[in-house]
Amino acid sequence: MSDRKVMLITGGSRGIGAAVAHGAIQRQYDLCINYHSDTAAATEIVAEAKKEGVHAIAVQADVGKPNSVQELFSRIDSEFGRLDVLVNNAGVVAPAARLDQIDDSRLRTILDINISGAVHCAAESVRRMSTAHGGHGGSIVNISSIAALLGGPNEYIDYAMSKGAMDSMTIGLAKEVATEGIRVNAIRPGLIYTDIHASGGEPGRVDRLASVVPMQRGGEASEVASAVLWLASDEASYVTGSFLNVSGGR
Questions:
Q1: Structural domains in the chain?
Q2: pLDDT score at 44
Q3: Do the beta carbons of residue 168 and residue 150 sit within 8 Å?
Q4: Which of 126, 55, 54, 37 is CA-nearest to residue 88?
């Protein structure tokens, strides 16, 4: 087994997750890239890691399903024998809609992946990291959204609500495991150029809304990744229960 720290990135094959993976490779983390469907993208990141001398695996798992989460962590146990960092990044958004247009199927998907999935991944990580469970500590970085503060009116209140729940989980879990060697923090990205906007039905959304951002531009996934990697690192050793808005001032 390697002495390098091991990082799990859920939803790690694209967007912010992939940007975090690229940065983690340069920082010599061993990696587990969780992905839902894009095998080619996940495999490409693993190949990049190998070129840099980093051990990485790609594991397909739907974090919205508890059994799938358990299988994901079993792979980490067998492949690495440790876990030091969880980047709780997997999340989905649906096409713009008012609250009175949201049906139960859409709501259930948002809640299962964005809330339940994040909670199950955090719980499995705590079982491995916590000194109370014989672990050596670690760091959990939850990827929330500035939408948690803005509410997502006329677009995706359900998504914003799910990120508000992640914020509450961040605060509570940070306090719960503060004496067990685990730091828990969150990033709130703003309008970032990733394909989540296309999956929500509007690939040009960032450019359309850039004028409402004080910095007058959308952000890059790499800018979010830098913040994630700082919170994950020992440089943030006295930071827990905190939120870093990467939103251009919005």
A1: 6-246 (3.40.50.720)
A2: 97
A3: no
A4: 126
Which of 4, 6, 18, 47 has the alpha carbon at shortest distance from 143? 18
**Helix or strand or coil: residue 217?**
coil
Contact indicator for 85, 29 with CB cutoff of 8 Å:
yes
**Residue among 6, 8, 24 nearest 142 (CA):** 8
Is residue 1's pLDDT more than 70? no
Residue 119 has pLDDT above 70, yes or no: yes
Neighbours of 67 (CB within 10 A): 10
DSSP string of 66-132, one letter each residue:
HHHHHHHHHHHHHHTS---EEEE------S---GGG--HHHHHHHIIIIIIIHHHHHHHHHHHH-GG
- Rounded distance between C-alpha atoms, residue 4 and residue 28, angstroms: 7
Active site residues: 159
Structure tokens at 160: 């914003």
| pLDDT, tens digit, 9 for 90 and up, residues 170-204 | 999 999 999 999 999 999 999 999 877 666 677 88
Burial 103-134, CB ≥16 within 10 A → b, else e: eeebeeebbbbbbbbbbbbbebbbebbbeeee
User: Cα separation of 136 and 87, whole Å?
Assistant: 17
